[in-house]
Amino acid sequence: MLLPNILLTGTPGVGKTTLGKELASRSGLKYINVGDLAKEGQLYDGYDEEYDCPMLDEDRVVDELDNQMTEGGVIVDYHGCDFFPERWFHVVFVLRTNTSELYKRLETRGYNEKKLKDNIECEIFQVLYEEATASYKEEIVHQLSSNNPEELESNVNQILKWIEQWVKVHNS
Ligand code: DAT
After folding, report:
1. Is 15 annotated as a binding-site member?
2. Among 77, 76, 56, 71, which Cα is nearest to 14's?
3. Are 14 and 144 within 8 A, CB to CB?
4. pTM of the predicted model as reported, rounded to 2 decimal places
């Protein structure tokens, strides 16, 4: 059976992981968190002193995932999307959160002032939305509001319906 690949992107803290795991458990699709994958495989290329974190080796991440993506049925979660092959994804969801709510979520993660400020600016200037529309066909890129549990539930239900429809169309 043909299954779609879904990209969940957006500023850190908008709820990609929460949505991705819930979707995976309710759809049977596989969830992949690119940050975790890089950590497990040490898919890094240098260190970013300014942000105090390792830098992703994007080519190795793509190599690592390519077979699974070609097979289909994968939900990918990452706060970036311009280095993934365009052919991988059938739909792209950019999660969006109000700045006051996002600030609260990131504060509880213990981010320092600079990291907090940069991430909030990233959300205000819709950096990830613009990256997504620059990297994929506009008609497959959708924004989803992710401020509260009701919106989470509604996003899960909407995407489950989208998956069901996609599967029907591509397997008939
Ligand atoms: P991300 O993977 O985008 O970094 P996350 O899924 O780890 O984000 O969520 C960050 C925090 O916010 C976490 O404590 C769960 C919470 N959260 C996620 N989606 C939410 C929503 N729709 N409403 C309220 N809280 C949410």
Report:
1. yes
2. 77
3. no
4. 0.98
